[in-house]
Amino acid sequence: MRQIEGQLNAEGFRFAIVVGRFNSLITEKLLEGAVDCILRRGGSEERTLQLSEFPALLRYL
Question: How many CA atoms within 13 Å lie on the side-chain side of 13?
Fold first, then answer.
């Protein structure tokens, strides 16, 4: 059986993270986990991360 595996490497990639401020007790921990994961995989906080915070849930029209 042929097996295909990806590499967990964030080097050279750019990420945007969108966080709602509505339930900050939960969203702050989720943000910390996402940033930690990217940094552990070789991403650079200064060069690759952009954070956007919104006061409430975004709704699609």
Answer: 11
Going through 1-61 in order, the beta strands assigned E by DSSP cover 15-20, 49-54
Of 25, 22, 24, 48, the closest CA to residue 35 belongs to 48
Q: Model pTM?
A: 0.70
Close Cβ partners of 9 (under 8 Å, ≥ 6 residues apart): 41, 42
- Cα 53 from Cα 58, distance rounded (Å): 11
- Using one digit for the tens of pLDDT, what is the confidence trace for 5-35? 888 898 888 888 888 777 888 888 998 999 9
